[in-house]
Automatic annotation (TrEMBL):
Domain spans labelled Tetrahydrofolate dehydrogenase/cyclohydrolase catalytic: 63-178
Alphabetized UniProt keyword annotations: Hydrolase, Multifunctional enzyme, NADP, One-carbon metabolism, Oxidoreductase
Assembly and oligomerization: Homodimer.
Phylogenetic classification of the source organism: Eukaryota, Rhodophyta, Bangiophyceae, Galdieriales, Galdieriaceae
Pfam families in alphabetical order: THF_DHG_CYH (PF00763), THF_DHG_CYH_C (PF02882)
Reaction it catalyzes: (6R)-5,10-methenyltetrahydrofolate + H2O = (6R)-10-formyltetrahydrofolate + H(+)
Organism (species): Galdieria partita
Residues covered by the Tetrahydrofolate dehydrogenase/cyclohydrolase NAD(P)-binding domain: 199-346
PROSITE patterns in UniProt: THF_DHG_CYH_2
Family of this protein: Belongs to the tetrahydrofolate dehydrogenase/cyclohydrolase family.
Protein name: Methenyltetrahydrofolate cyclohydrolase
Length: 350
């Protein structure tokens, strides 16, 4: 939702919260996440257990993103080995990292590790934060022409002096494994055209639904959030699958009433436990994209991760729900690898 309407302040941005961040080593949070997932910190005293999943032995309602992502990586490894036998070449993923943000460095390491696991070639380009926009664009031009590279990912965020939009649009559409290029966005939004590269997080959401045999066609789907990274592409993917789709945002009136109509809810607003479980339609399916760290001194790290949906209220009412962590986050990286293999196949056949 729009930041101007956020009801819960992001204490991550306040001076008062810095001692807490140092004490808890908050950057450990990002070891579990794709950097494309919004992370919000709020201050809250909490006596609940560190993980709701640890206190609930039932798992039949859980959409396990971690296990599903591992299954996908196993499938990709088999496919990559087969492609190597055919082309004597492996898909190559190039990641550009600007600056020395610890969270970004952690994400890149995880990406590199999983890429190697499935047999991809992984190229990392570390640039100083002071790098000029012109130099970064030159590097992208070189990677666009490099036959070893089939996917290019620019790690976000970029320094303020560099135009993110200009950089993302400079990546050749065939190597845009994040799915952010204008042509890929346009193809996704044109219903009778085959989509190009699909953004990783929303693609991971629908992959989970498919892997668990959850029907999409004819269902009423509500998407909370309208970001270009998750909300809008998720809505378009659901529409392509013949769901009746509604996007809700910070100006939506009677939000609880709209959510209560959802057979499938995708929550991607970045507000900790914002969605009450009492809003949910009984036996609905909930995909919780939110990753939020809240203060919890009962844990060794001093914080715990929660989603945008109140787990304890939601779990008894739903048919399926993704956990946080272990739901959408692992699927995002799996879809990045899948897109890279897809790009390799298309480029090899062209």
């Amino acid at each position: 939702m729009d930041s101007s309407k956020t009801a819960m302040p992001c204490a991550f941005q306040t001076m008062a919260f810095k001692p807490f961040l140092k004490q808890t080593k908050y950057l450990d949070v990002f070891r579990l996440l794709s950097s494309r997932t919004r992370v919000t910190f709020i201050t809250r005293r909490c006596v609940r257990p560190a993980s709701c999943l640890e206190t609930n032995t039932q798992t039949k309602k859980i959409l396990d993103g971690k296990a599903t992502a591992q299954q996908i990586r196993n499938e990709l490894k088999t496919k990559v080995d087969s492609l190597y036998q055919k082309y004597a070449m492996r898909p190559g993923l190039a990641v550009i990292l600007v600056g020395n943000r610890k969270d970004s460095q952690t994400y890149v390491r995880n990406k590199h590790r999983f890429a190697k696991e499935v047999g991809l070639e992984s190229f990392t380009h570390d640039l100083p934060e002071s790098v000029t926009e012109a130099h970064l664009l030159e590097l992208i031009d070189e990677l666009n022409q490099d036959p070893r590279v089939h996917g290019i990912l620019v790690q976000l965020p970029l320094p303020a002096h560099i135009s993110t939009e200009k950089v993302l649009q400079r990546i050749h559409v065939s190597k845009d494994v994040d799915g952010f290029h204008a042509e890929n966005v346009g193809r996704l939004c044109t219903l009778k055209r085959e989509p190009g590269m699909i953004p990783c997080t929303p693609q991971g959401c629908l992959e989970l639904l498919d892997r668990y045999g959850i029907q999409i066609q004819g269902k009423h789907a509500v998407v909370l959030g309208r970001s270009n990274i998750v909300g809008i592409p998720a809505a378009m993917l659901l529409l392509r699958r013949n769901a009746t789709v509604q996007i809700c945002h910070s100006y939506t009136e009677n939000l609880a009433e709209e959510v209560s109509k959802a057979d499938i809810l995708i929550a991607a607003i970045g507000k900790p436990e914002w969605v009450s479980g009492h809003w949910l339609k009984p036996n609905s399916v909930v995909i919780d994209v939110g990753i939020n760290a809240v203060e919890d001194w009962s844990t060794s790290r001093g914080y715990r991760l929660v989603g945008d949906v109140r787990w304890e209220e939601a779990y008894p009412r739903v048919r399926y729900i993704t956990p946080v962590p272990g739901g959408v986050g692992p699927m995002t990286i799996a879809m990045l690898l899948k897109n890279t293999v897809k790009a390799f196949e298309r480029l090899s056949q062209s």
